[in-house]
Amino acid sequence: MPALICGSLAFDTITTFPGRFAEQILPEQVHILNVSFLVPTLRREFGGCAGNIAYTLARLGGEPLVLAALGSDGGEYLQRLQSWGASTEHVASIGDSFTAQAIIITDSSNNQITAFHPGAMQSAQQTPVPMRDDIRIAIIAPDGRDAMLEHAAQLAAAGIPFVFDPGQGLPMFDGTELKRFVSQARWVAVNDYEARMLCDRTGESLESLSTSHLAGVVVTLGADGCDVWEQGQRTHVAGVAASEVVDPTGCGDAFRGALLYGLERGWPLRRCVELGNRIGALKIACRGGQNHVIDRTLLGL
Predict the structure, then answer these.
(1) Which one is catalytic: 174, 227, 253, 295?
(2) Per the domain annotation, does 301 fall within a domain?
(3) Are 264 and 60 a contacting pair, CB within 8 Å?
């Protein structure tokens, strides 16, 4: 059964700064910030939250159905999605726009600064959620603002359970809009920083959110694993040590691909998260968001 993935498709230009941002940015001078980072390495990768999530889900044996928008330069990306067996019938091509692009600088402490050009992503709302009986689960991942609002409402109206994963898009929404997203979703997945912002803007706590209609709230904590909130109770799920820390880009998306895989199969939320932690450890040992190798046999799948 397909899992609908609503989110961005983007090209990532990834660079590495061999120092630490904290050594270059003077806190007392941020009001006149003017810095330049020398980045000796540069590479271009396929990225975007929907693409990254779909990659992991496909590699795990799931069936990703991508709802997104590409620009006039997106033909290569479309072929890449199809090479995994992902359905692209709901990927729009916007002829007068470029595909979204993220320009990412990572420092030696794995902190990141990102500039993002939305491009075709701003037109993603033009493609509605498909009315299909075989869609068992979905995710609202970072995308154009209107697309996130409209697709969430369409999923709720269709009775399709979905994960609300606001990610970097969370600051675009006020408290009322975030409450609406939460009311429509079945699960919420955020990192620890996003969790604090979500609670601040909605006036809720993680405990209160998890005692609502939600089946669970997942808060990722990087190498420390994640917290799972269910019915007001917090369960900590320890992280998995990576063989090597190479590139954090796309780790959260890899985790969410695993989360979708488990939820679609009716696994307990803790088991889904345990798989997500293992996949995140595999991803961080590889460069880019779509290059990690997943051996389903070793994972016991």
Answers:
(1) 253
(2) no
(3) no
